[in-house]
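thoughts on these tokens:
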Amino acid sequence: MCGMWSALLEENGIAVVPVDGAQVTLRRGSQRATYTVVTTSSRVHPSDVTEPPAGNALLILPALSEAAAQRARSRGWSAIPDDGPAWVLFHGREIKLKRPELATGSQQQSRRGRPGWGIFSVLRALLALEGGARQSELVEFANVSQPRISQALSELATLDLVERVPAGWTVTDKAKAIKWWVDHYPGPGGLASHWYGLDPIVEQAFRVHELLEAKRSRPAVSGDVAADLVAPWRTPAHALVYAEKGADLAAAGLTPAAAQDATLTLVLPGDRAVWPIGRTPWTVGLTGYGNVARVGALQVLYDLSHASGPDAGDAAHAWLDWMLLTDPVV
């Protein structure tokens, strides 16, 4: 649900600029406004609609009835449900959001929801911590609760992906574990904004990384740019940057763009484990620029596997080959 609503806004000519996990700035033409984002996983009924927490408030939810939508409008909410009327109150006027036509299967998939990230964080940690890890270490490095760690290990052991050893728990088959992770990972979630620039892709990525680092937003590169630094296969065609907080990337020489036209995408992920799991920070050198942080190796592989372009698959295979020869997988 998190990524779909920003895409719907963009399809209706409204650019989304993430500020942080709780706020976004919407831009339409020369006008802009900042909204507090309120997300709920439950269907909202008319009696559930309260006063918005700010002058501009955006409600993100699975479903909204006509009656609940009417009440939300009267109280000054903007709302984007997966199912139901969607609108944004923008500079004193209501903009009704039109949805693209979707196949029935796509609609059903979008409403089914996503599994949690816990089991994927646990497997990330086991691949990154050499020699096995005890549950107490997994709680620390995977940032997952003890009960969920136990449940995840049980599920992974049933799949014959992990086993108990004297040092704790370890992966049984590295290649098999990585394949399962990539095939089942539900994506990082969160909020994405799309940008366009004329400069070389690597230069765009470095400038954005530099801008976000100055704002202490914990930026990290992924996709083409990250892979090109370790296992060069193709000239980067698109930059993908993750961060904890967003920014207006016009300061880095970029302009908002539709997803299909973007040269750079900034993601504020819902999954906090996209950053490398390990005992030391991980940086890579951009030739001619300087050091930048990259996301975890599994995240790079996932993003390459979902990249566009005729040779994107080859780039993903080249990165996977590097991962299989590297210990630990950080």
Q: What stands out?
A: Confidence is low (pLDDT under 50) at residues 102-115. Residues 191-324 form one domain. The first helix runs from residue 2 to 11.
